[in-house]
Amino acid sequence: MPTPVQPCLPGLSQPAEHCARWFSTQGCVVREGKVCSVFVGGLLLGRYSTEELGPRNVLLCLLSQDRAMHKGRLAEAFEVSVETLRLLRQCWEREGLESVWRRRAGGSKEKLTTQDKERIEALFAAGVGVTEVQQRVGASLGVSLRSVERLRTAWRARREETPEKAPAAPLLLPAQGDQGGEDAAPEAPVEEAAPTGKAAAPVQEVMDLLEDAAAPSTTQPPSEALAAPELAPAQTPAPLPAGEAPCDEAAPVSSAAQVQHVGTWLLLCVVHALGLYGEAWRLAQGVLPTRVLRVALDAFVMAVALGQRCVEGVRRLGTPSAPLLLRTPQVPSASWVRWRLGQFAQQQRGASWLMAMAQRYIRRAGANAAEQQEPAVFYIDNHLRPYRGKHTVRKGWRMQDKRAVPGCSDYYVHDEEGRPLWRINVPEHSPLTDWLLPLARRLREALGPDQRLLLCFDRAGAHAEQMAALRTEGVEFVTYERKPYPALPASAFGPPLRFREETVRLCEAPRKNLRKGRGRVRRISVLFSDGKQINLLAVSTQPPLWLLQVMVGRWCQENSFKYAGERWGQDQLDGRRVEPYPDKALIPNPARRRLDAALRLLRAREGQALRMLAPLAPSDPRRADLERDLQEARAMQEQLLALRPSLPTHAPVDQTELNGELVRHTEEYKLALDTIRIACANAESELAAFLAPRLPRAAEAKKALSNLLAAPGQVQAASEHITVTLQPAATPAEQRAFASFLTDLDAWNLTLPADPRPLRFRIQT
After folding, report:
1. Three-state secondary structure along 39-72?
2. What's the Cα-to-Cα distance from 557 to each of 125, 372, 378, 421, 457, rounded to whole Å?
C-alpha cells in the first residue's frame, strides 16, 4: 500500500491564491501559484508547473486512459480545451510518451510587420477599398481578403475613438473572435456600453427600460463609407464587400425558370405579416434606409429558414439566382449583414424591437383566449446560454449539466402552444421569484384590464411571498407545491378521471396556508395510477383538471428551448463585445468558495484515513503514517474554519480577485437577432399548424415544412400576383399535402416585404 502523501491544499494564510478543480468524485487539480498538484483518492499523483507543460501533458494522457473518465471535466480541470486533450492522446498513440512530453503550445507567427500595417492603413485613409488593398499589398504579403477586412475594422475602431472625430454613429464592422466555424457566433457590430458603476441591473431597472419600447428612434443616420460599385454582368455575382450597401430599392420580382431556395419566400411573407418588418422600419427612421435594412433582414431570415443558426449562414445564399431571390443586384456578404443589423440594434433599438413584437404576440394570444372565454395562459421560465470563450463571466445553474457553468440566463415567456413571445437577458442570474411580478405587470399592460391572465411556472417560483403578491395584483397562476408536503391516503381522492393516456384522481382539500397573514391558496392533490402524488398550488376559478392540463403542458416550453437552440440558434453568442462588470455588484466570493472546497478536500482526506485505519491492527507499522496524516488533516481543518468568518459568502466585484477580469456581454445586437429568430419560430408554428392536419404524420409538420422552405422553384411574375412553383423533396403523400396546404394558403393574402407594387404572393407545387 502506498504511503498517503499530504496534499498541498490551498494555503491557510493566503487562500485567494489557490484553486481546486475536480475532474471526478475522487480526483482534482489543486493550484498553488504556478504549481499544480494532481490528487486521486487523496493521494498525490504528480505535480507540474504552468510554465513546464511536459509533466502536465503526461498526467493528462495517463488519466484520460480511464474509460469512465469524463474528458470534458478532465480538460477543464487541467485548464485546456477538449481539442487539446484529443490531440495529446493522438500524439501519444502515434509517437509514444516522449513526444507528449516534448509537445508545446502551438501558434503561428504574425505575417505583417508594423510597417506593413501602417502601409495598409494609409491606403484605407486614402479611400481605397478592401478588395483593391488586398490586390495591391495583401497578395504580395500572403494576406487574405478576410485579414485585410479585420485590419480595416481595427483601423476604423481606433479612428472613431479619437476626440477629433465627428459624433456620427460609427460604421461598425465585425472583428475576428476566438471561435470559428460555420456555427460559431460572429463578432457583433454593437457599440460597447460604458459600465454603470453600480450593481447589475435590477429587475425594476430592466422593466423601466422597456417603458418606451414602442417609441421611434431619433438617432441620426451615419454617413456611408463607400458607394456601391457597378458590377459587370456575371453568372454568379460576387458578394457585396463589407462597408458597401445595395444601391436600389426592392427590385420588382421578375420571372425565372429556376431560383434556388425560393421556398424561403414563404417564411419571409409570414414574418412580414406578423409585423416584423413594419416595426423595424419604424424604429430605423433616421438611422438606416428602408432598402438597406430590408436586404439585411431578408438575408438573415432566409439563412435561418435554411437551418443556418447565425449570420454566417448568409454565405449559403450566394447562388447564381441570389439577386432575384434577394431582389437586389448584389449579394450581401455576412460581414455586411452583421454591420447593418448592428447599426440598427444600437441605442436600445434591439430591445425596443423585441418589446414591440412581444406586445403583438401577447395581444394575439389574449384575443384567442378571449374567444374561448378562458384566461390567457403564459409560461415563464429561465434558460441558461452557456459561454465557452476566453472571458470571465458569471456562472449560473444549468439543469442539463447539473452544475453551475459560465453563461447568461434568459427569462422567456411562451404562450400555451409553446410559442416564444418575449425574452429578457439576465447576466447576474437572478432567481425566478424576482421576475414573476414585473413580467406579470407587463403582460397585464399588453393584454388590457379586461382579459384574464394566468401564469404557469415551476417550483422555483412557488414561494409564499411571490404567490401572495401575484394574487394581490389580480393575476391567476398555477405551480407545483414545494416539498415536503403530506402524502394523502387513497381514500381522500375522488373518483378516477381520464387524463391524457392515464387515469388520475383529484383532491382539493385542505387549502394551502401561506402564513404571516398572506392568506390561503388552492391546493390540488393529484394521485396517478402508479401511486405517485403531486400537489398543485393555484389562484384561479378554473376546474382542477383544466389546471392540471396547463401545468403538465409546461413541457412545451422546455421542448421549445431545445428546439430553438437546434433550429434557430437561440444559444448562439452572436455578439462578442463585452463590458466590465459593475464594480459594486455583489457576487459569490471566490476566496470563500475556494476555502469551502479546501475544507471538503480535507474532510475527504480525514475520512479516507479513518477508513484505512479501521481494519489495521494496533501493532501495524502503517498506522503511524495514517494517524499522522489524520491529525494533520484535522489541524488544517481547524485553521480553515478559524479563517472562514473573515471571508463573506458574497462581496463586491472590486473587493475580489475578479476585479478587472469579470465581464458581461453587450446584448443589443443579440436582442435584434433573437427578435428575428422569435418571429421565424412563430411564423413556422403558424404554418406547421396549418399543414399538420393534411399530413399522414401530423407530428412531422415542422420537418416537412423545412423541406418546403429549402426547395427551389420557378417564379412567374404577372400584373396582379407572383406565382412560385416549388419542387420540394417529399413523398407522394407529402406532395398532396403540400398542394392542398398551398392552395388554402392563398387566402392569407401574403405579400413580400417592401414589394413596390405590391403583388399577391401565391405558391404551388
Report:
1. EECCEEEEEEECCCHHHHHHHHHHHHCCCCCCHH
2. 52, 22, 10, 11, 10
The 10s digit of each residue's pLDDT in 400-454 is: 888 889 999 999 999 999 999 999 989 989 999 999 999 999 999 999 988 999 9
Contacts of residue 35, Cβ cutoff 8 Å, sequence gap at least 6: 8, 47, 48, 49, 50
CA 355 – CA 366 distance, rounded (Å): 16
User: H helices then E strands: how many in the chain?
Assistant: 24, 25
5 close to 43: Cβ distance less than 8 angstroms: yes
Which amino acid appears at position 98 of this protein? E
CA of residue 234 relative to chain centroid, distance? 40
734-755 pLDDT, tens digit each: 999 999 999 998 888 888 888 8
Spatial CA neighbour of 716 closest among 764, 749, 756, 758: 764
- Given a cut of 60, whether residue 109 has pLDDT beyond it is no
What does the pLDDT read at residue 168?
30
Phi and psi at residue 449, in whole multiples of 5°? -75, -20
Grid coordinates representing 228 are 456601391
Under 8 Å between Cβ of 688 and 417? no
Q: Are 418 and 688 spatial neighbours (Cβ–Cβ below 8 Å)?
A: no
CA–CA dist 447, 474 (Å, integer): 13
Query: Which range (200-204, 389-393, 539-543, 728-732) has the least confidence?
Result: 200-204
**Residue 73 pLDDT > 90:** no
Q: Which helix (H) or strand (E) holds 421?
A: strand 420-426
Question: Does an H or E element contain 159, and which?
Answer: helix 145-161
Domain residues of the chain, as ranges? 15-102, 168-222+235-456+554-575+665-765, 458-552, 586-664
pLDDT band at 302 (very low <50, low <70, confident <90, very high): very high
Q: Bridge partners of 240?
A: 332
Other CB atoms within a 10 A radius of the CB of residue 52 amount to 11
Distances in Å between the alpha carbon of 113 and those of 116, 132, 141? 5, 20, 10
DSSP 622-671: HHHHHHHHHHHHHHHHHHHHHHGGGS-SEEEGGGSTTTTTBEEE--HHHH
Contact 290, 298 (CB under 8 A): no
Instruction: Identify which of 174-188, 393-407, 682-696 has the greatest average pLDDT.
Output: 682-696
3-state secondary structure of 32: strand
CB of 637 within 8 A of CB of 599? yes
The yes-or-no verdict on residue 207 having pLDDT over 60 is: no
Across the chain, mean pLDDT equals: 81
Which one, of 230, 564, 215, lies nearest residue 421 by Cα?
564
Higher pLDDT pick, 208 / 462: 462
**Rounded alpha-carbon distances, angstroms, from residue 360 to 367, 415, 583, 686:** 11, 12, 38, 15
SS3 call for 19: strand
The whole-number pLDDT of residue 353 equals: 96
Contact criterion met (CB below 8 Å) for 173 and 199: no
HEC assignment per residue over 472-497: HCCCEEEEECCCCCCCCCHHHCCCCE
Evaluated on CA atoms 687, 692, 696, 699, the torsion sign reads positive
User: Grid coordinates representing 140?
Assistant: 504580395
Residue 355's pLDDT band (boundaries 50, 70, 90)? very high
Question: What sign does the dihedral 22-27-31-34 (CA atoms) show?
Answer: negative
516: phi then psi, degrees, rounded to nearest 5: 50, 35
Q: Which of 445, 575, 528 is nearest to 185 (CA)?
A: 575
DSSP type of residue 100: H
State CA 584 to chain mean position distance.
26
Q: How far apart are CA 343 and CA 188, in angstroms?
A: 10
